[in-house]
What does this fold into?
Amino acid sequence: MWKVVLLLSLIPLVGAWLGRHWFWTRVRMEGIRHDCGTTVRDLRQKLGLPAGRRGAETHAAALGNAVRECGLALLEKEGNGLAKARINGGFLTRALPALVIIIAVFAIFSKRVPAGWAVAGAFGVVAFWTLLRLTSMTIEWRAVAKGAEALKSSRALKRIADEEEVIRCAKASVWNTVWPF
It folds into this structure.
């Protein structure tokens, strides 16, 4: 029975990985080669937000991530509860696999749970969280639209081609937020 649970848990994980690879990784590689001449720090300040962590990067992929994050922050400022939940859930998306692995390892070593069930349970929890992230992607796309609107109105980038590439990378970066690893 644990094998069935494991196989069913792998479906959303593999689907999220394929979606991330197909929609984000290819666009990111193209965006890294496209230098826009504006740093992430400058872009965030022109959009009316604090400078942020990764402030020195100038390629379109990093600026696309910044536009998406700025869109989420702007939606949160407007009082959108889903945007706030998406921002807060980003940390859990990165931390959950490690926590689940620790719990599974301790369960296996303490011999309280069979190893198959511990592994299946760990994959099940991560798969469930991935499904939740997949179903709430619409708020991310709404944030990208809000960030793109703010980007166009602020004229933060010098060239229209840069703007289009950054918006393309921002739309693709939504898939980066789903995969938990």
The chain has one domain: 2-177.
